[in-house]
Write a structure and sequence with these properties.
mainly alpha, globular
């Protein structure tokens, strides 16, 4: 048994899944294929989104396979790097927006509803109590989301996909509105979210290679 928890050779274990759980394996393959085929979003765009979401799930197998797929579909390293910086901005934004719960936590008479859009009105608290850090976050977020090798519209589509991966309702709300304003269609957003769904499932799927490796100890 390898002492390295992550190595590409472990992926060969996944060949056993067709015998261990044939029905589920077939259904997963059909799901993954349907989600990643050309549609309102191109194959290249979907693979760029997949690379981004793989950095949310932190699955090295998924990062490896979808980076190769994205490259084969014509994505440049600059495009992939910008996509992953969107992930970094969304991860940072999730922490920032959830800071709006602090006042409720300190107020025994606060309403029971934990998530309301009006919470975002309290974002200024971070700027008030940690001005330099908040300014740094704001500058980073602006740089990550502005148009570059990827358009602003596509970055916001990635943002919506990533927000469903991080499960931040504030991020879903903000970036859906931004994507809509940038011209994203309902079809594009739906396909992007399904890429996220497939990558979340894919992270568990790929890690079964480690389970099988451990079981064979």
């Amino acid at each position: 048994m390898s002492q390295n928890l992550y190595q590409k050779s472990h992926m060969a274990h996944l060949n056993q899944l067709k015998d261990l759980a044939p029905e589920q394996m077939q259904a997963f393959g059909a799901f993954n294929e349907a989600v990643l085929k050309e549609g309102a979003l191109t194959k290249k765009e979907k693979e760029i989104i997949a690379v981004a979401v793989a950095h949310v799930t932190q699955c090295p197998y998924c990062i490896d396979s979808h980076t190769q797929n994205a490259k084969a579909a014509g994505a440049t390293l600059e495009e992939l790097t910008e996509a992953v910086f969107v992930v970094a901005a969304l991860e940072a934004g999730g922490a920032v927006t959830h800071s709006t719960h602090i006042p409720n936590a300190k107020n025994e008479e606060a309403q029971d509803a934990l998530y309301t859009r009006s919470n975002l009105e309290r974002l200024g608290n971070l700027g008030k109590y940690a001005p330099e850090g908040f300014k740094g976050y704001s500058g980073f977020n602006t740089a990550a989301m502005k148009a570059g090798t990827l358009s602003e519209k596509f970055k916001e589509i990635i943002g919506v996909a990533v927000a469903h991966g991080t499960q931040c309702p504030y991020c879903i709300d903000v970036h859906t509105k931004n994507a809509d304003q940038a011209g994203a269609t309902d079809e594009e957003l739906a396909e992007a979210v399904l890429v996220t769904s497939a990558l979340l499932a894919g992270g568990a799927y790929a890690h079964m290679a480690n389970m099988i490796e451990s079981y064979g100890e």
